[in-house]
């Protein structure tokens, strides 16, 4: 009761700020839906309710979720919502805490992905009779100190989680310290989440460098350390679609500087240019498949923490990564052959015979699928 009252007053305090941010394109759908339930009715009933934060997490759940005939998604970001909606119409934004107790529809199993630990989500699910699983549970080095400060809160959350499937033994130790029970180490499902390429693009005659998942400031940083030649082709794929216009200008200026051609993927010009902006979602994996080397963003500036190397390593492609990958340490432990760089030697690396990446310690996605199906049957009384 106290927590619900507290969350309500937090909502009241945040309301003016939320109204202002709701006018921004990035939050135009998510904030009104989450904080005012605008066009965000309760989910339709489903056997399994998957909750994950954003595009990358929903993508990681895709193969598993599609194994079930009856499932639903909740998420908290616009990109996550669009990805989930493409998989299942039974998708909603997860409301703010004070709304969840009267909004959440009962499911037989609730699967919460990674660190999306909302007290009212798991508490209400248990009250509704759901079996609650925390999947792919991890606690990064940076987050652990913050978690320990609020140990009382997480200890309360873990009262309502029936099973924790952790990524590593280190995560299990940290989760136990925070009050989690019934923990199994199953590895990281992203290591087994081999999403195949959706298209087969022909291999380019030029040496293809894909610069992927870049954030604000990284495109300039990476490109400023490259002296291209006409035997190279570059695909630049920003992480967030709202940055496509800005990155287009950066790429265009880079091309002009070296007298190279530039084009956008959306222009459908036939990949004839040396510099190509991948200004669309869900395509970068198709270019990983035919790349000669991938430069993975989110790791060359502090504050982001890196991105998933598994998507590249499934194709055994050479990978250049920065040193700021603290949020993805568990994933990088699953990949051999990564080339770490501060970009000062980027030209040298791009002209070297780099080692290929390889995935190790793959999680058994089938066993996780079977476990969830068993819990569904138990909820049916079978």
Topology summary:
Layout: H1 2-21, H2 30-36, E1 46-51, H3 55-65, E2 71-75, H4 78-87, E3 91-93, H5 100-103, E4 107-113, H6 119-128, E5 131-137, H7 141-149, H8 151-158, E6 163-166, H9 169-177, E7 183-185, E8 207-214, H10 218-223, E9 232-238, H11 244-257, E10 262-264, E11 275-277, H12 284-288, E12 293-296, H13 310-313, E13 319-321, H14 329-332, E14 335-336, E15 338-340, H15 346-350, E16 358-359, H16 365-380
Parallel strand pairs: 1-2, 1-4, 2-3, 4-5, 5-6, 6-7, 8-9, 8-12, 9-11, 10-11, 12-13, 13-15
Antiparallel strand pairs: 14-16
Helix pairs in contact: 3-4, 6-8
Features:
382 residues; alpha/beta; Rossmann fold; 2 domains; seven-stranded parallel β-sheet; 16 strands; membrane; cell membrane; EC 2.4.99.12
Report the CATH C-level class of the largest domain. Alpha Beta
- The Cα radius of gyration reads 22 Å
Portion of residues within helices: 25-40%
Number of structural units classed as domains: 2
By CATH, the architecture of the largest domain is named 3-Layer(aba) Sandwich
Overall 3D shape: globular
Mean pLDDT: 93
Distance between the termini: 35 Å
Which strand order spans the largest sheet, edge to edge or round the barrel? Answer: 3-2-1-4-5-6-7
Number of helical segments with 4 or more residues: 16
The assigned structural class equals alpha/beta
């Amino acid at each position: 009761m106290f927590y619900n009252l507290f969350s309500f007053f937090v909502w009241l305090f945040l309301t003016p700020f939320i109204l202002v941010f709701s006018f921004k394109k990035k939050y135009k759908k998510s904030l009104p839906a989450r904080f005012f339930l605008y066009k965000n009715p309760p989910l339709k009933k489903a056997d399994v309710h998957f909750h994950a934060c954003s595009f990358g997490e929903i993508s990681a759940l895709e193969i598993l979720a599609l194994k079930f005939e009856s499932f639903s998604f909740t998420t908290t970001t616009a990109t996550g919502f669009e990805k989930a909606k493409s998989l299942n119409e039974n998708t909603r934004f997860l409301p703010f805490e004070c709304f969840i107790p009267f909004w959440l529809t009962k499911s037989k199993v609730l699967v919460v992905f990674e660190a999306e630990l909302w007290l009212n989500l798991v508490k209400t699910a248990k009250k509704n009779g759901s079996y609650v699983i925390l999947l792919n549970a991890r606690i990064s080095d940076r987050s652990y100190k913050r978690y320990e400060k609020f140990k009382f809160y997480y200890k309360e959350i873990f009262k309502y989680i029936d099973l924790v499937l952790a990524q590593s033994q280190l995560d299990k130790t940290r989760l136990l310290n925070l009050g989690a029970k019934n923990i199994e180490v199953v590895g990281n499902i992203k290591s087994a989440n081999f999403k195949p390429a959706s298209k087969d693009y022909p291999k380019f005659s030029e040496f293809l460098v894909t610069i992927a998942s870049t954030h604000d400031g990284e495109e300039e940083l990476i490109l400023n350390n490259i002296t291209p030649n006409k035997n190279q082709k570059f695909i630049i794929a920003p992480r967030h679609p709202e940055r496509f216009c800005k990155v287009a200008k950066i790429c265009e200026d880079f091309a002009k500087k070296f007298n190279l051609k530039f084009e956008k993927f959306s222009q459908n010009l036939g990949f004839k240019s040396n510099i190509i902006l991948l200004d669309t979602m869900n395509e970068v994996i198709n270019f990983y498949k035919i790349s000669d080397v991938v430069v993975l963003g989110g790791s060359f500036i502090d504050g982001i923490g890196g991105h998933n190397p598994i998507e590249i390593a499934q194709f055994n492609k050479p990978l250049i990564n920065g040193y700021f990958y603290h949020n993805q340490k568990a994933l990088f432990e699953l990949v051999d052959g990564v080339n770490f760089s501060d970009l000062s030697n980027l030209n040298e690396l791009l002209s070297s015979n780099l080692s290929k990446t390889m995935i190790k310690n793959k999680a058994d996605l089938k066993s996780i699928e079977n476990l969830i199906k068993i819990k569904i049957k138990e909820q049916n009384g079978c």
